[in-house]
């Protein structure tokens, strides 16, 4: 079975596809027809790889965390996506898509963002490559994420408030889709995770797959073998996890573990653990698992980390879950917080709250002493200092 890529209609098993209003067909079809040829061309790869190296700062280190390894009595390597320019893996995708948009002849970029991290990455890529950038954001999120709003504005992006519904991410998605329908010729919609209609999940996974490509090369150099025993990543929509798993999903000896946000607990009514709580449905243009009521209303998710606070999961991951190719754990807010402080004290690295969910797997699963365990440290903790400060004071 092929886990890595969808079929020609964008399906990973029963998940995926493109469920979109008819007025979006031209935009999505243009992408479906062209994305592979463009991003696999030598010309594109030359420019993209050069920017990843000299602008983003890749390859990111694969760091053997000695102190953490001693504590958990296993061999732990951290893939340091936190060291990327703008502080997380999201720039890998944002740069790739903005480059792709240029080659499609677009001069205007739209995006939507919840916590603001994807908005900042997209605004950064647009500043660098000289494209107009409009970021839709829920009115409530604009208030909650003031520093990232300031960054986007400083980078030259226009931040537009979504004022309908719950005034959060899903309303921003609706505004972005409306914009795209109205501006099909000039505009590309940069989706920030492995979600959305085909070809977005595959497109984003390919841009993030650099993570596992580097892990293979770096692990070979450090240990003599390119496959670890385990790869672990947190899953919101699933882009850092897709990148971390990509080159390992067909390697049977590599075990794959995904960490979802349990929030206050899977049964608390305040959770974002999609594979535990989700059922089959259509969200943001693709068929996947999502948290919904019996009559199909999306349930508001909750997580302490804004980046995991999403009611769905990409079709790539839904398929890995259904086929039992990956093992899913749900990590609660307090468990993630504890691991953020633990990594900081043991290794001098302040992780993002999202990434701390992946670290918390170390408490959930027993590893052998000689196991090579690679954890994706998807981002740095600067953006989460307010939450960490509250914890220090309490
Ligand atoms: C956005 C974000 C995530 C969650 O998004 P995925 O698409 O699931 O990777 C995880 N970690 C960090 C640091 C983020 O900014």
Question: What's a concise summary of this model?
Answer:
The protein is of the alpha/beta class and 394 residues long. It has 2 domains: 12-51 and 90-204, 3-Layer(aba) Sandwich (Rossmann fold); 59-87 and 210-393, Rossmann fold, CATH 3.40.50.1100.
Layout of secondary structure:
Blueprint (H helix, E strand, L loop, with lengths): L10 E2 L2 E2 L8 H16 L1 H15 L5 E3 L1 H7 L2 E6 L9 H14 L4 E6 L3 H13 L2 E7 H6 L1 H9 L3 E5 L6 H14 L4 E3 L10 H9 L1 H14 L6 E5 L4 H7 L9 E9 L10 H4 L1 E5 L2 E5 L24 H8 L3 E7 H15 L5 H7 L1 H4 L7 E6 L7 H9 L1
Parallel strand pairs: 4-14, 5-6, 5-8, 6-7, 9-10, 9-14, 10-13
Antiparallel strand pairs: 1-2, 3-4, 11-12
Helix pairs in contact: 2-4, 4-5, 4-9, 5-7, 9-11, 10-11, 14-15
Bound molecules: pyridoxal-5'-phosphate.
The site of pyridoxal-5'-phosphate has 19 residues, from helix 11 and helix 15.
Overview of this protein structure:
The chain starts with 10 loop residues before the first strand and ends with a helix. It is globular. It has 17 helices and 14 strands. Strand 9 (about 230-235), helix 11 (about 240-245) and strand 10 form a beta-alpha-beta unit. The longest helix has 16 residues, at about 25-40. Helix 4 (about 90-105) crosses helix 9 (about 200-210) and helix 10 (about 210-225) crosses helix 11 (about 240-245). It has two domains: about 10-50 and about 90-205, Rossmann fold; about 60-85 and about 210-394, Rossmann fold (3-Layer(aba) Sandwich), CATH 3.40.50. It has about 400 residues and is α/β, with parallel strands linked by helices. It has helices at about 25-40, 40-55, 65-70, 90-105, 115-130, 140-145, 145-155, 170-180, 200-210, 210-225, 240-245, 275, 315-320, 335-345, 355-360, 360-365, 385-394, and strands spanning about 10, 15, 60-65, 75-80, 110-115, 130-140, 160, 185-190, 230-235, 255-265, 280-285, 285-290, 325-330, 370-375. The protein has a six-stranded mixed sheet with strand order 3-4-14-9-10-13, with helices on both faces. Bound molecules: pyridoxal-5'-phosphate. Pyridoxal-5'-phosphate binds near residues 234, 235, 308, 352 and 355.
């Amino acid at each position: 079975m092929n886990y890595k890529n969808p079929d020609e209609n964008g399906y990973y098993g029963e998940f995926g596809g493109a469920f979109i209003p008819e007025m979006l067909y031209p935009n999505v079809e243009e992408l479906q027809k062209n994305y592979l040829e463009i991003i696999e061309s030598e010309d594109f790869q030359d420019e993209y790889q050069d920017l990843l190296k000299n602008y983003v700062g890749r390859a990111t280190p694969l760091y053997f965390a000695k102190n953490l390894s001693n504590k958990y009595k296993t061999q732990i390597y951290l893939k340091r996506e936190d060291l990327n320019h703008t502080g997380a893996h999201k720039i890998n995708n944002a740069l790739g898509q903005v480059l792709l948009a240029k080659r499609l002849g677009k001069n205007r970029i739209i995006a939507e963002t919840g916590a603001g991290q994807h908005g900042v990455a997209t605004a950064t890529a647009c500043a660098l490559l000289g494209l107009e950038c409009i970021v839709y954001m829920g009115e409530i999120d604009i208030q909650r994420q003031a520093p990232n709003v300031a960054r986007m504005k400083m980078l030259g992006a226009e931040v537009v408030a979504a004022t309908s519904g719950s005034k959060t991410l899903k309303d921003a998605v609706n505004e972005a889709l409306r914009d795209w329908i109205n501006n099909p010729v000039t505009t590309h919609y940069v989706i920030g995770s492995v979600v959305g209609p085909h070809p977005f999940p595959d497109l984003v996974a390919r841009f993030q797959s650099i993570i596992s490509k580097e892990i293979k090369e770096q692990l070979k150099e450090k240990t003599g073998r390119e496959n670890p025993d385990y790869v672990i990543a947190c899953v919101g929509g699933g882009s850092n996890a897709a990148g971390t798993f990509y080159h390992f999903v067909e390697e049977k000896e590599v075990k794959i573990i995904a960490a979802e946000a349990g929030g206050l607990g899977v049964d608390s009514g305040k959770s974002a653990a999609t594979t535990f709580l989700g059922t089959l449905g259509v969200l943001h243009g693709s068929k996947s698992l999502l948290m919904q009521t019996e009559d199909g209303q999306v349930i508001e998710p909750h997580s302490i980390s804004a980046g995991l606070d999403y009611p769905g999961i990409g079709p790539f991951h839904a398929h890995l879950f259904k086929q039992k190719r990956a093992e899913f754990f749900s990590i609660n807010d307090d468990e993630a917080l504890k691991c953020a402080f633990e990594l900081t004290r043991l290794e001098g690295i302040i992780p993002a709250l999202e990434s701390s969910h992946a670290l918390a797997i170390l408490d959930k699963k027993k590893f052998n002493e000689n196991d090579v365990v690679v954890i994706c440290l998807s981002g740095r903790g600067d953006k989460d200092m307010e939450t960490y400060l509250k914890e220090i004071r309490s």
